[in-house]
Amino acid sequence: MSLAGLTAYSAIFVQAFVTLLVIFDPLAAVPVFLTLTRNQNSAGRRRTARVSVLVAAGIVFLFAIAGNRLLDALGISLQALQVAGGALLALIALDLLKADCARERSNAESGAVAFVPLGTPLLAGPGAIAAVMLYMEKADSAAAVAAVVLALAAALILTWMTLRFSSLIGRVLKDNGLNLVTRIMGLLGAAIAVQLVASAVQHWTRWGVT
């Protein structure tokens, strides 16, 4: 592989990794995770962190592999999913900017929170699904696909590590630190949401709505 090709695939990896990490936003999930697992011991929290990330990975990888076929069967274009994902991501970003993401669910059962709401929609939400499908659609070679898959795996591993050590992170950053990071991630999330919608509109403007 030439140096130019390696640089291009590295750029794809970095762009996909940063986008997915911002959408997963593991630091913003820390207060939610701590709230939903408040009645669990250390072993229970570790298990919940592992299961929630595995659930998110399964959902996102499923749409990465078979998402286009599913959309074709439903008659939905990727650009329509981009706009929907961008709109929902914008709502999530607004919640993050208001630091409103740690609302307590008092009726959540500790055994189920790893699936809902942690695995989905908190981690594997429409924004993550739309983003990974978009990157897979743009990947024009096996190396580009591998770069996207590696970026997704790296983002999921970092998310798992963040949840795994959420108690320590919460003690280090404290409420003010978590709020600051949450707002920064919210701003980045809003920018990504605008870009998703803008890309879809640009496609429709150039090629027409299909």
Strand count, sense and barrel status of the largest sheet are: none
Mean pLDDT: 83
Approximate strand percentage: under 5%
* Overall shape: globular
What helical percentage do the residues reach? over 70%
Count of helical stretches: 8
Q: Calculate Rg over CA atoms.
A: 18 Å
SSE pattern, N- to C-terminal: HHHHHHHH
Q: State the secondary-structure class.
A: mainly alpha
Low-confidence stretches: 101-110
**Span between termini:** 37 Å
How many distinct beta strands?
0
Please outline what is shown here.
By secondary structure, this protein is mostly helical. It contains 8 helices and no strands. Helix 2 packs across helix 7 (142-164) and helix 2 packs across helix 8.
List the helices and strands and how they pair.
Layout: H1 3-24, H2 26-36, H3 42-74, H4 78-97, H5 114-123, H6 126-138, H7 142-164, H8 166-207
